[in-house]
Every structure is written in structure tokens, then in C-alpha cells.
Amino acid sequence: MNIKVVRGNPTPEELAAALAVVRARAAAATSTPPGPPSQRDAWSDPSRIAGARLPNPGPTAWTRTYWPG
């Protein structure tokens, strides 16, 4: 792995810290076995908002199915 500093003049401590982060991320990416996809959080589910109430009929009813208020 070759890493090149293209801008700035980092101190040896700063360079060591940056390399430690890059190496840790690379090791974590290669060591994690693929598993089932994680389940979405409930707060990001659009049906949580849309299922609570029905919009009034009209030309803009589709916009009110997702956005509260």
C-alpha cells in the first residue's frame, strides 16, 4: 500500500495517526464476513408516517402521504 501526502506538511505523529485509521478501516473491511442485510430502522420507514392518516383527495394528495403536516 502506497500513501502519498499531496498537500501540507504533517508531523510524524499526525501521519502515524492517519495511517493507523486507514489500516484499521482496511482491516475491518476485509475481516467482516458478509451477512444478511441489516434491517432498516423504524424511524426511516415512510409507512410510519403515511400509515397514520389518509390524505384528503385532491391533486396534491400524493405529497401529503409522506410529509407530515
Describe this structure in words.
The chain has 69 residues and is an all-alpha fold. 41% of the residues lie in helices and 0% in strands. The chain has helices at 12-31, 47-50, 61-64. The longest helix has 20 residues, at 12-31. It is elongated and about 65 Å long. The termini are far apart.
The helix fraction, in percent, is 40-55%
What is the string of helix and strand elements? Answer: HHH
| Average pLDDT taken over every residue | 76
How many DSSP helices?
3
For the largest beta-sheet, the strand count, sense and barrel status come to: none
* Residues in β-strands, percent: under 5%
Number of strands: 0
Rounded to an integer in angstroms, the radius of gyration calculated over CA atoms is 24 Å
* Silhouette: elongated
Low-confidence stretches: none
